[in-house]
Description:
The chain has helices spanning 29-43, 70-80, 123-128, 168-178, 191-200, 213-222, 247-254, 267-270, 286-294, 299-310, 312-327; strands spanning 2-6, 47-51, 62-64, 84-87, 102-105, 118-119, 156-159, 182-185, 205-209, 225-228, 259-262, 275-278. A 6-stranded parallel beta sheet has the order 3-2-1-4-5-6, sandwiched between helices. The protein has a 6-stranded parallel beta sheet with strand order 9-8-7-10-11-12, with helices on both faces. The model has no long low-confidence stretch (mean pLDDT 95). By secondary structure, it is α/β, with parallel strands linked by helices. The relative contact order is 0.15.
Amino acid sequence: MKVAMVIPPYRYGADPTQWITVPPQGYGGIQWVVATLMDGLLEAGCEILLLGAPGSPLQEGVTVSAAVETADIYTAIEAFAPDIIHDHSNTAVLPPGGLRPTVSTHHLNGVPERQGNCIYLSRAQRTAAGSVSAPLIRLPVNPSRHPFQEAKDDYLLFLGRVSAHKGVREAAAFAHAAGLPLTVAGPAWEKDYLDALLTDFPHTVRYIGEVGGSARTRLIARARAQLVLSQPWGGPLGGRWTEPGATVVAEAAASGTPVIASDNGCLPEIVPGVGTVLPVGREITPRDAKRVLETLPTAQAVRETAVDRWGHHTIARQYLAVYKRAISGEVWR
């Protein structure tokens, strides 16, 4: 099957000639999802055109397009003549009224711009979008990209955007109660929030900025636990935040690192079996933190569960089945 994979083109750093690649140089949730899904599709024999990530590493079976403007993307798609277009850009760079079968994975909150043939990451996200029967496919993970480490170091990890809706302050409060350092890795575009975090938890939080490549995977694999304490407020576009898919949960679990999560959005759907879910707003005492850490599943159990549920082969098969539905002319909402 020939698949045109479309992601939103984002600049990387201050260099106007550089784009966030697949896989990403540092922060890039959608880019990691697409890289992992492509792993599964390529192993299933697909041929892929990658759009929206110029400069991505070359690999057999993948054509990396330099197109970033909508008109150029459309031209590249037509030249490739795919069986299916898989959009990850929330239709931001797709031309209206495309002539080829298209499916869209919704990576955001709220209602997608085009609900036709949308694929959701969780029941919570699908419900918030007003759909009841559209396909639901979890985020994939490729265990070969994530080294397994059974013996853990004594630190907790937050990996992601340093913002209120991602629960970084709540993660710092948990780490403080547990008496453990918290490594915070990710972009901090809201300076006041980061400054307040470092002021209030000076002996707990170690902020290291964005990390990528092997440094990132080692950081995940060595952590005693990963904290994903998303909050239902403070979202980037205002309004209620519903955690849609949580790539970091699958990545951590594939490394044998258990997850401590809030009950926001998708998290109570995916975390049981690889970690513990805590209610939003619950104040954590040192006794609570100790109990949570002592009852986390083992590294081996966490990795086995992650691969079984979200392995890239499994998720690729699910997408191929949905692609075939769209190619046959089926339309859903």
